[in-house]
Amino acid sequence: MKRRIFSLMLSVVVLASLTGCGGNSVTSDKSKDKANKETTDNDEVELTLWARQNYYDVCKIASEKYHEKNPHVTIKVAEQTELSDQFAIALSANNEPDIVSMDSVLIPYYSSIGALTDITDKVNEMDFKDTFSEGMIRLSTFEEQQFAVPFGPDVSVLLYNKEHFKEAGLDPDKAPATWDELVEYAEKLTTEDHAGYVYSGGDAGGNMFTFVPYIWSNDGDVLTEDGSKSLLDQPEAIEALQFFCDLTNKYKVTPASVNSYDFGEATDAFTTGKASMVVLGSAAVWNILNGEYGDISIGISLIPAKDGKNFTSFSGGDSLAISRGCKNPEVAWDFIQYCLSEDIQVEELAQYGMIPARSDLFENEYFNERPEFKVTQEALKVGRAPYSLKYNEMYAPFLDGMQAALNEQMTAEEAFTSAAKKINSILEE
Question: Which parts of the chain are coiled coil (predicted)?
Fold first, then answer.
């Protein structure tokens, strides 16, 4: 409800603002362009950047390194615990930051209300514009214009415990590639000590990140391409939900309480050896490889596809955007380009468990030393996310549908048909 109030409020405020300034393109305001062109190394420039908790440290380091190269520019980085809500409040008060590192799935909404600067021409001039994944670029656009660039992706992949595989007589170097193989492996792996598979059945965001790729691998989707209608009531999505119901209720390869797990509980079950397989993000891969959870021998693969052909991944993480009220969009853009350089994308992002947004930057010593990162690179290539102007508002009906089916209160068809109706009502508002 809080987000909806903000949305209504912002739509009026932002549109009114745009009427007065004639748009939000970097090149649309001639007076600003003139001022930007006149900026010299002797002019002091101070810009603000807001970042989510996971990205604050990297953004802070990037700002410091950029300042070393450009002493006249100071980028003040602030961590925001509830960035979307705080950004909405700032917009309503015309007090937004100059640059924002934002969850990529929220870019379409903020682009649609005129809160972000059109950087289409700027991106088209980049030498490495074609190195971004199609899925991440899609989230950065609205009405064929681009309002952000991918910064720190997080992709979903299958992780498995190699020691458990050995104990069950499975090849530790061969992950399940199909749904049938996932069931077969999970049944062999399930013992009194650990479950064969685990997922975050009680977490809306976690289910989006880890379950939705199963829908995609079955040639289904959450929404239509333009985000205007739910497709959860289609056979492909229903079949994927039924598959998850069967993992718990038919094959019994998950913990009995998995339907209430949040993302952290699913992670803990795997990292403590209580589960043999789980879908997590690329950041978790880094944490495990670097001993954050003790000495675990893990394998990593793409998420099993229905028939072992249409592999997919949920591609989340953050994108960088310039706000509509940026004091100096040219300098802001220069800083963003620096954030996409090897200096930051490899030397810094990697230290915090993140993978580069640019595919060409996987070819370096750091990532080549860890074969696991080859899988995350492949996941990024096939990664995507539902495109919606009301992404967060879909959480409740989506989770309600999954819960109803997993807890056997409804059939999979009934649950997702109901969820689709509720989501469509939200999308039509």
Answer: none
